[in-house]
Amino acid sequence: MKKLLQLFIAGIILSAILLYAIQAMNESQGYSGENTLTIYNWGNYIDMDLIKQFEKETGVNVIYETFDSNEAMLTKIQQGGTTYDIAVPSEYMIDKMREEDLLIPLDHRKLPNLNNIDDRFMDLPFDPGNKYSIPYFWGTVGIAFNPELLPNKTFTSWNDLWDPALKNEILLVDGAREVIGMGLNSLGYSLNDTNKQHLQEASQKLETLTPNIKAIVGDENKLLMQNNEAAIAVLWSGDAADIMWENEAIDYVVPKEGSNLWFDNMVIPKTVKNIEAAHQFINFMLDPEIAAQNTEYVAYSTPNKAALSYMDEEMVNDERFYPPPELTEKLEVYKNLGPKMLSYYNDLFLEFKMHPK
Amino acid sequence: MHHKSTPTAKIFLFIIFAILYTPIFFLIFYSFNSGGTMSHFEGFTLDWYKELFHDTRLFIIVLNTLVIALLSSLIATIIGVFGALSIHAYKKRMKNTLLSLNNVLIVSPDVIIGASFLILFTFAGIKLGFYSVLLSHIAFSIPIVVLLVLPKLMEMSPSLVDAAKDLGASNWNVLTKVVLPYITPGIFAGFFMALTYSLDDFAVTFFVTGNGFSTLSVEIYSLARQGISLNINALSAVLFVVTILLVIVYYFITQRTNMKGVGIRK
After folding, report:
1. CATH classification of A35-137+263-316 is 3.40.630.40, yes or no?
2. Residue B2 domain-assigned?
3. With left for phi above 0 and alpha for psi between -120 and 50, is residue B217 left, alpha or beta?
4. Whose C-alpha in A54, A60, A322, B205 is 20 to 30 A from the C-alpha of A229?
């Protein structure tokens, strides 16, 4: 009995000390004050120095939390019980969040820096008039390849992937819209095509690609490419930038037939507590110099036109990440095709995945 | 029981331990890598450790994890012991039913438990954070404590209790002077089991955290999605050393009490 009591008391005392330590640390970091701003962003998707600068300029304490998928973020916001002031979902998720009434309309008067954004990236189909969202970064879907593993191969078109010499070399990203979209693009159709005959054609064409496919993967494609274990991957430009950072041999192209144009956007979810600071933060991030610094850190493509002049020339002129106008015209944003069409896409993708090699 | 171990047995043992410990040492080894990745070793550096000790956020998360583990296993032990006592008091059929219900909670997947807690907490309006994590950890630790305490109770001869009562002990005396001392090893086992379960729980915690509260397993998971940075290796190395130290301390404590037990022997 004595032993049990000792254990019990020791446990209580230890917990009390730890709790006190946590409290003290939280206070010293300013996490428990009143004037806070909670940002919910993708991991490693902002230059942390900018957050410190924002804290200094405004006196707001920033709590920075990360998520790893749009779906995880949606669940946390949907469930309530959280106090996120800013979130950064991808464009297709904005549609969904808007439908479920999870977003707060932005007050454009509090965002004077909004006019720094390139007009091309304003007023897009997923959020007409930018009522709820401001683009944060954008990118494309394309082909990353390793010329060291594939001498004398160049890629300019989606159809180059169908080359019989590439047997068992290609990694595809595990997304129905991306893969079916690639099939549609390779035939010259739109990514948002709803004509079932066109979709069937695309799916049949994709089936002939199966011998060349090494695997259909998620985030693993980064490691496989970095470590020279795979030669070609169809992926998002953001992932490609990460890979190229680690392995300089790798190159990236946006095929000439066109491709997807995606956005990650800053929104204010309905869980907001400090709406004033949230607007302040969005406006801060839209400042050309701030955006330029952030872009150089994250290395994705910025929609901030004014920021380009503050950035490294080499980065701005990189056509892989800032494609020339002829190509940009062919890039399409995913439209919300409705649940019925979406499940048709998913069915085709599933059939494709199950197609015997 | 003094078999001389054959060479084969020794080799077998060696291989098993090698398999179990190699990944950990591999991880620790790369925490000193100046190269920045786990693919090849470039040179020795302590940068990752420096970065680790300057990261207050990560340190808070480590402390959070420890507090949650300690508090939840303490509370779960208390509740679990009383649960075991009451299950033990039932007649056979009822006892089996209750025990099966208890075991279902242990074998049911963490994901389901986590999801159901999430739904419950949001339904009840409990803010996700420290308390929701603590409550859910207590809840999934209780069945473990019950399971480890109950065999000790079964093992105890009922005549012990009868004898104590014969000699005029009150119910309280029977509990504190006879039953609890007898089942103490079970209670300790339950407590430490609950502690380890809580320390490394990922699935349940993943569902019920929010609002700036995070535990180590959840944090490492979200860090790992961007490719593991080597300060995670450094952190694992530190935790490994701390665990080793705890095991050594625990070893000495048990050594001492055993000696005392032999020496006194009334």
Report:
1. no
2. no
3. alpha
4. A322
- Rounded distance between C-alpha atoms, residue A243 and residue A249, angstroms: 10
Residue B261: per-residue pLDDT: 43
Which of A6, A18, A84, A222 has the highest number of chain B CBs within 10 A, making it the mutation to test binding with B? A18
Q: Is A214 on the interface with B (CB under 8 A)?
A: no
What is the enclosing helix (H) or strand (E) of B48?
Answer: helix B47-54
Asked if residue A357 lies in contact with residue A211, where contact means CB atoms within 8 angstroms, the answer is: yes
Q: How far is B107 from chain A (nearest CA, A)?
A: 26
For the stretch A203-251, pLDDT in tens is 999 999 988 998 888 777 888 888 888 889 998 888 888 888 888 888 9
Could B71 and A15 be called an inter-chain contact, meaning their C-beta atoms sit closer than 8 Å?
Answer: yes
Residue B10 has pLDDT above 70, yes or no: yes
Question: For the segment A138-178, what is each residue's pLDDT rounded down to a tens digit?
Answer: 989 999 999 888 888 888 899 999 988 888 889 998 888 88
Give CA–CA dist A242/A230, Å, rounded: 15
Angle between helical axes of A196-207 and A176-186 (0-180°, round to 10): 90
What are the structure tokens assigned to A178, written together?
Answer: 């991306």
Interface predicted TM-score of the whole assembly (ipTM), two decimals: 0.70
For A105, A116, A137, A288, the CA distances from A304, given in Å and listed in that order, are: 21, 6, 9, 7
Q: How many CB pairs under 8 A join A and B?
A: 83
- What confidence category does residue A30 fall into, taking pLDDT thresholds of 50, 70 and 90? low
Same fold, A35-137+263-316 and A139-261+324-354: yes
pLDDT in tens, B139-185: 999 999 999 999 999 888 889 989 999 998 898 888 888 899 888 88
Lowest-confidence pick of A90-94, A173-177, A215-219, B219-223:
B219-223
Q: Give me the domain span that covers residue B39.
A: 7-264
Mapped onto helix, strand or coil, the DSSP state of residue A13 is helix
0.80 exceeded by pTM: no
**What is the DSSP pairing of strand A86-87 with strand A36-42?**
parallel
A223, B180: Cβ pair inside 8 Å? no
Decide: A252 and A323 in contact? Cβ < 8 Å.
Answer: no
> Is the distance from CB of A232 to CB of A154 less than 8 angstroms?
no
CATH class of A139-261+324-354: alpha beta
- Banded pLDDT at B138 (limits 50, 70, 90): very high
Q: What is the pLDDT of residue A176?
A: 85
Is A246 at the interface with chain B, CB within 8 A? yes
CB-CB under 8 Å, A21 with B122: no
User: How far is the alpha carbon of A194 from chain B, nearest alpha carbon, in Å?
Assistant: 34
